[in-house]
Inverse folding.
């Protein structure tokens, strides 16, 4: 059995504006159909991913405990 190359980085969440995964840049259909795609089709999708990821609005980072405590004390980051 041969391993199938995948752009997945285990950050699996879809940007509702673009429809692309925040982690890899694929659409839901591409993710679900990845295993059935031909190697050529997968390469085409992978070639488009860097440009797609540029259009994804990054999820806001969660506030860390340290940052929250500093904010509550009135300190600046």
């Amino acid at each position: 059995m041969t391993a199938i190359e995948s752009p997945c980085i285990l950050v699996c969440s879809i940007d509702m504006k673009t429809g692309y995964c925040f982690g890899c840049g694929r659409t839901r259909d591409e993710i679900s159909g990845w295993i059935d795609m031909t190697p050529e089709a997968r390469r085409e999708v992978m070639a488009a991913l860097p440009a797609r990821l540029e259009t994804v609005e990054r999820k806001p980072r969660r506030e860390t405990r340290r940052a929250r405590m500093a904010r509550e004390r009135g300190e600046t980051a």
Notes: The chain is about 40% helix and 0% strand.
